[in-house]
Amino acid sequence: MDCVIKDISLYPSGENKIEWVRRNMPLLNGVRADFEKEKPFRGLTVGLSIHLEAKTAYLCRVLQAGGANMIVTGSNPLSTQDDVAAALAHGNGESAPMHVYALHGCTPEEYEQNIDRVLSHKPDILIDDGGDLVSGVMDRFPELKPHILGGCEETTTGVIRLKAMEKAGVLPFPMMDVNDADCKHLFDNRYGTGQSVFDGIDRTTNLIVAGKTCVVAGYGWCGKGVAMRAKGLGAHVIVTEVDPVKAIEAIMDGFAVMPMAEAARVGDLFVTVTGDRDVITAEHFAYMKNGAILCNAGHFDVEVDVKWLRENALERRAMKPNIEGFRLDESRWVYVLAEGRLVNLASGDGHPAEIMDMSFAIQALSARYIVKERGKLQKKLYAVPKEIDEQVARKKLSAMGVGLDELTPKQAEYLQSWRV
Predict the structure, then answer these.
(1) For position 104, which CATH number holds?
(2) Are 362 and 183 in contact (CB under 8 A)?
(3) Which of 14, 41, 239, 343 could form a disulfide with 66 if both were Cys (CB 3.0 to 4.6 A apart)?
């Protein structure tokens, strides 16, 4: 197979990782069994750009089991795990080798080249995380627009980009908003981000969270999860927000709310999770305590202005893997984790397998929906159909050994009537 990976000999370690998550992803196992019978992607090429670690690798194999010719890259230079990339490129007894273009620590230029390598295979369906495949089509492969049936977007940042394209009237093909499906954002964004962010922080720093003041920038679903976990670990939590409704919600959830200019003076640990840029800048660095730790859980590395620190710090030092120190004056240092990239993936293994089981089941079923509805969908951003969400939720409950009540005919009739 044509591949760009670090070392194919790393595949045994990657294969073990994939096998571990497979054992803990019952929903995807069920989807895989269905896909093996149906072959919904027979004859189709799927181009995928998602953080390339074990759970993503298993999604790739589920889609491949459905007949897809898989072309794979990562969605962040620091989140690719080279042994997992090698395992996909090598294949095993059940799954054929795939075209894989992904390297941990690649340069921005190499990252874009890998996106382009995926698109050069003329995929019929895109599975995107952050919008880089769609943007690549727009900017460098416009000839693919009429060829692509549609795609699925995994994360908030990508959905923001797609909504901007749709509003401008330039969205080139149908896209499914996987991020906003209930079985994605309610669990992945909140519980997945909450746990994996502190997995990454703890693994990297080996410092206690209890007793520290943790500043969480942004109180969307991801921010809610980070704040909840910080509180559970014993931190004093401050939330910064631009949305007045979310700010009230944070207050009623028991958190202090203030502007970043105030929070910068008292915070020990800062986590940005807004999906926007310039959330922590030179203005805020000027006030920070000696020893403040900064990290980001938004998709792109633009929330903390690491570029300014690199250009203006009096001294810059690698403290340990994934921690870079910047001396701002005679005695004051601040520390940035994972270069300001996604700390939960660049410094950890990402969301727990059971969480991504739901998210990736939504992905796989949404991709099948695009194929089933080919020719009927417009160049729009579509919500995931309610029946897919409910199917995933019911299967998840079943896997957890949990039953539900059912409405009686009288109850169902009552809920549809205006009479008491």
Answers:
(1) 3.40.50.1480
(2) yes
(3) 41
